[in-house]
Amino acid sequence: MKNILGKSLIVTIFVALLSSCEKPSVTDDAELLNRLMTNSVDTLVYNSSKHVIEAEAYRNFFPGSSIPTKRPLVAYVSLVNLDTINISTDLEITKLYIINDPLIWISSPTSASSQSIPWYKLRLISNDGPEWDTNILVDVVLEIWNSVNRESYLMIVRDITIERIE
Fold first, then answer.
1. pLDDT band at 22 (very low <50, low <70, confident <90, very high)
2. Which CATH class is domain 24-165?
């Protein structure tokens, strides 16, 4: 009896752990897609400086072990001040949208700080995205929060290829 209860407990814990795994936030929302595509700009002028987005998207297929693993989408994004002066501390990247029409992956990117990143770039990363095909084109939209005037801006870079890293 104890053996059956022990096995049942282990199975229950395993199922609970599997169900609690966070899945990428992917939506098929036509209204959101329309808002992102119509309200996004490719260049943002703030404090008399022009800003653009640089983006990379890839899935890592580098063999790492004999156990099959997920190969989630990874996105690196940078807000770049074209005048090569510091990015204003008033600006913060709050959301990343990767658009594989009609699907949208929504994430909250985190810092990708490195000493090799120039001071005129704000670089962030989002991990654990969907397992979309490689060699397809996606659009990348950033939502940027201005803490001074309490406004959000949407910026877009189009036709970014999801690369396959091997």
1. low
2. mainly beta
For residue range 106-160, list pLDDT tens digits in order: 999 999 777 788 989 999 999 889 999 999 999 999 999 999 999 999 999 999 9
List Cα–Cα distances, 15 to 3, 8, 11, 12, 112, in angstroms. 18, 11, 6, 5, 33
Q: Using alpha carbons only, give the angle 29, 30, 31 rounded to the nearest 5 degrees.
A: 95
Q: Which residue has the tokens 């990379």?
A: 56
> pLDDT band at 60, cuts 50/70/90?
confident
Asked whether the beta carbons of 94 and 144 are under 8 A apart, the reply is yes
Residue 121 tokens read as 């770039």
pTM: 0.81
**Spatial separation of the C-alpha atoms in residues 161 and 20, rounded to whole Å:** 31
**Sequence spans of domains, the chain:** 24-165
The 8-class DSSP code of residue 40 comes to -
CA angle at residue 55 from 124 to 105, to 5 degrees? Answer: 75
Residue 13, by phi and psi: left (phi above 0), alpha (psi -120 to 50) or beta? Answer: alpha
CA angle 41, 44, 49 (to 5 degrees): 160
